[in-house]
Amino acid sequence: MFDFTIDGRIVSVKEGTTILEAARSAGLHIPTLCYLKNVSSIGSCRLCVVEVEGAAGLVSSCNTLVKPGMVVHTNSDAITAARRTALQLIIADHGLNTTQYCFSCPKNGSCELQDRCRELGVETTPFDVQPAGGPILDSNPFIAFNPALCIRCQRCVGACNNAAGNHTLVTGRRGVRTSILAPFGEDWKSTNCESCGNCAGACPTGAITMKRRREYRSWEIQRVRTTCPHCATGCQYNLVVKNGRIVDTEALDGPSNHGLLCVKGRSASFDFVHSPQRLTMPLIRSKITGELEPASWDEALDLVARRFGEIKARHGGSAIAAFACARSANEDIYMLQKMARTVFETNNVDNCARVCHGPSVAGLQRTLGSGAMTNPISDICENAQVILLVGSNPEEAHPVIGMQLRAAVARGTRLIVVDPRDIGLSKTSDLHIKLKPGTNVAFANGIVRQLIHDDLIDHAFIECRTEGFADLKAMVEAYTPERVAQICAIDPRDLIAAARLYGRADRAAIVYCLGVTEHSSGTEGVMSLSNIAMVTGKYGRPGCGINPLRGQNNVQG
To answer: How far apart are CA 86 and CA 63, in angstroms?
Structure first.
């Protein structure tokens, strides 16, 4: 920590803090347009310029680091004039010296360019209007790109490359101009675009938009915060509601998604709410026709209560079971088990977490005492030096986790993929071990043996925090690299390399999914992976642990 002065105030900041971050932490406002936290800080818009005493000219605050003793001014006549000129140039580049198009733009009312113009009092531009031009690209079923509205801030490129790690959107050159090469034309299917829409979420204007935006304007809607119901990542977003109907979603900075969404969460996770195929009233099967016929809620509840009462009176409460869904809220599930235990007088209570991840519940409960992930998603992706990914394809099954794993690999995290399939992440992995399906236990035992033989184990952790190490050591001794290679149909050198890459890292995490659990030896597979982390002491620390990727958003609730 060190001190510097900003607008006459002495502020303490950490080394590596930018002027913009420091100003915001001190409650000072600096306008921005091309900046987006953790996405883009190229400093091209020049709206965030400030004065630094001793510096020649104004500097962009979004990418200038604070130095000890630095004196910064964020507001002066010269700064305001520079910001207004920069904004007038952007408007000229935007192709609008009037507000005519704004009224029909899908982002009207929620356009950051509009906001900055109002803030700085800019209504027109003295410069020649030279819009980028080009055809509107809208062949993608979810996303459209209008290059005439692009201000080339490159936030979309940062969202695609830095945040989502997909590297589909790139910049190009058209003469002296930078242009955005957006893959939303007729050939969009031939690209690796995932239609996640994170580029549209990052775009400050109406250049890249979700097509759903055409259905509403910002002043017509209400927002309801919730959790995406699709998978177990637990992405936070707002449901955008117009006239009682969900019309869109907006990503929020939740602890597991950090402003990211996938195509399923952004474009497919809520349409079922208004599906004409949904039941809107109870149905009771007619004893005469045998068909389901509409009934009132009172009729339906009376029938269900009476039948449950008859079953309990005749056979006892143990004849009744309650089964909960992991997409339900904690409160709903609590009431279900409460009803089962108190009203039905049964302890037959279960949930769907045990269907796909029963081995995780049993295996981790037996080895660790709790059948859940040991680390937050952000911790794995930001702090792990090595990630051992076993039997999991997060880019498809848990896309937002897949995005964060891609970004981690791009930052230098080493990745070991253990999967018989050629998944997307295997292309950038350090090792891809394509073992024979169903041989996870042998593979993990071979890793443990190699760790022991290379003395890459944590003796103090084993002594203080584990039980049965001597038995484990004796058991895995038979799993030599050669024997494991024969069982798993892999190269023994890959097994040794994987063990050493994982074992030599100070922080390494294990991530797995149904490729481990959905086997007859699934519980043992989970326990054997847990053994890898235990013998190396990679538990209870950032960037370590063993982490099952689950199927639904409240599995761990």
So the answer is: 17
**Cα 169 from Cα 294, distance rounded (Å):** 51
**For the segment 439-482, what is each residue's pLDDT rounded down to a tens digit?**
999 999 999 999 999 999 999 999 999 999 999 999 999 999 99
Q: How far apart are the first and last CA of the chain?
A: 38
Q: Are 281 and 300 in contact (CB under 8 A)?
A: no
| 349-392 per-position pLDDT tens digit | 988 877 778 898 889 989 998 888 999 999 999 999 999 999 99
Q: Would you say 306 and 294 are in contact if contact means Cβ atoms under 8 Å apart?
A: no
* Distance, CA of 273 to CA of 287 (rounded, Å): 31
Write down how long the chain is: 557
Two structure tokens written together for 425 = 């992440």
Report yes or no: 69 and 11 within 8 Å, Cβ to Cβ: no
* C-alpha–C-alpha distance, residues 367 and 359, integer Å: 12
| 3 state SS of 77 | helix
Question: Is the pLDDT at 48 greater than 90, yes or no?
Answer: yes
Cα–Cα dist 50/339, whole Å: 62
Q: What DSSP assignment string belongs to 313-324?
A: HHH-GGG--EEE
pLDDT score, position 97: 47
- Which of 206, 91, 212, 214 lies closest to 149, judged by CA? 206
**Residue pair 210/267 in contact by the 8 Å Cβ criterion:** yes
At residue 118, what is the residue type? R
E strand residue ranges, 33-168: 49-52, 59-60, 71-73, 143-145
Q: Give which of 327, 372, 328, 188 is closest to 263, Cα–Cα.
A: 188
- Number of C-alpha atoms within 13 angstroms, CB side, residue 222? 7
pLDDT band at 98 (very low <50, low <70, confident <90, very high): very low
Cut 0.70: pTM above it: yes
DSSP per position, 155-196: HHHHIIIIIS-----EEEEETTEEEEE---STTGGGS-----
Distance of CA 316 to the CA centre of its chain: 46
Rounded-to-integer distance, Cα 369 and Cα 525, Å = 16
- Per-residue confidence (pLDDT) for residue 326, from 0 to 100: 87
Phi and psi angles of residue 172, each rounded to the nearest 5 degrees, phi first: -135, -175
d(CA 444, CA 526): 9
Separation CA 220–CA 210 (nearest Å): 17
CB 161 within 8 A of CB 167: yes
The whole-angstrom separation of Cα 553 and Cα 557 is 9
Bridge partners, residue 209, by sequence:
144
Show Cβ contacts of residue 445 under 8 Å, excluding neighbours closer than 6 positions: 475, 476, 479, 484, 528, 531
pLDDT at res. 521: 92
| Cα separation, 503 vs 456, whole angstroms | 5
- Tally the C-alpha atoms within 13 A of residue 431's C-alpha that lie toward its C-beta: 23
pLDDT at 131: 65
Average pLDDT over residues 91-102: 67
Q: What percent of the chain has pLDDT over 90?
A: 79
